[in-house]
Specification:
The protein has 251 residues and is of the alpha/beta class. The chain has 9 helices and 7 strands. Strand 6, helix 8 and strand 7 form a beta-alpha-beta unit. The longest helix has 22 residues. The protein is elongated.
Length: 251
């Protein structure tokens, strides 16, 4: 199924769309004189949307997905570092080019540190699922080489999904016998990524990065915000994606 279709379906199942749909259905029911059912459904949608917008909810859900950080022992025997893309800013005005977005930069910073500690070669992976001039792989390679002074040996720029990241990375690394990898991605994404890469044939040493803050909740974190909604949506997206991968037999 094309990514555009799966992304659209997922968007309807996640906040803010799903709670808003409940509110809309409730309004229709009320308009059709089913006041009690309509009011109950609309109220449920409003409450769910309010909860989804709370940073304490979003961050708590993200933390449920995050594995422990990598250790020197867990990375032992790795033969390459694979960094997954997280998106691009297309035609960024100050660079006049497609560039890696903020989450991708967080992954790349950690990958650069791993390279300096281990000396392992790097593969960057990510295509152009929604168009643009440069692939995610190309933008990440540019950041590593130009900004972090870290060489990139392989650029995979055709994948559109995590499963494709895994399959195409395996096609590049397996002929060289590099099947044990340190996999760098956001901590909340690691569970789904590890499923995909193990299915592709890799022995995976997770190297998660871009963790949610470990600071104590503040008063403002109990109030709705766009950041809270983004965190909740991101966590539920990963839960939905992991369930989908398991349903397809990735585990």
């Amino acid at each position: 199924m094309p990514r555009e279709i799966t992304d659209a379906i997922a968007a309807l199942l996640l906040p803010p769309a799903a709670p808003l749909l409940l509110v809309a259905i409730g309004a229709v029911l009320a308009w059709r004189r089913r006041m009690r059912a309509g009011a109950a459904l609309a109220a449920l949608g409003a409450v769910l949307l309010w909860l989804a917008c709370l940073p304490v909810v979003g961050v708590s859900l993200v933390r449920l997905l995050e594995p422990p950080p990598a250790s020197e022992a867990s990375l032992a025997g790795a033969q390459a570092i694979v960094v997954l893309g997280a998106g691009r800013i297309e035609a960024s005005p100050e660079y006049q080019a497609d560039v890696a977005n903020g989450e991708a930069l967080g992954r790349l910073r950690y990958a650069a540190r791993l390279v300096r500690k281990t000396g392992l070669p790097v593969l960057v992976s990510g295509g152009k699922p929604y168009g643009g001039l440069l692939s995610e792989g190309a933008t990440m390679a540019h950041v590593l080489e130009e900004d972090f002074r870290v060489p990139v040996r392989w650029i995979e720029g055709d994948s559109h999904t995590t499963a494709q990241n895994a399959a195409m990375a395996f096609a590049l690394l397996q002929p060289e016998g590099r099947t044990r990898i340190a996999l760098v991605t956001s901590a909340a994404h690691m569970r789904r990524a590890e499923l995909a890469f193990r299915k592709a044939g890799f022995d995976v040493a997770p190297a998660p990065s871009v963790y949610a803050s470990r600071g104590e909740p503040r008063l403002i974190d109990w109030l709705p915000s766009s950041g809270g909604l983004a965190a909740t949506r991101a966590a539920l997206w990963e839960m939905l994606g992991t369930a989908w991968y398991r349903l397809k037999g990735a585990a």
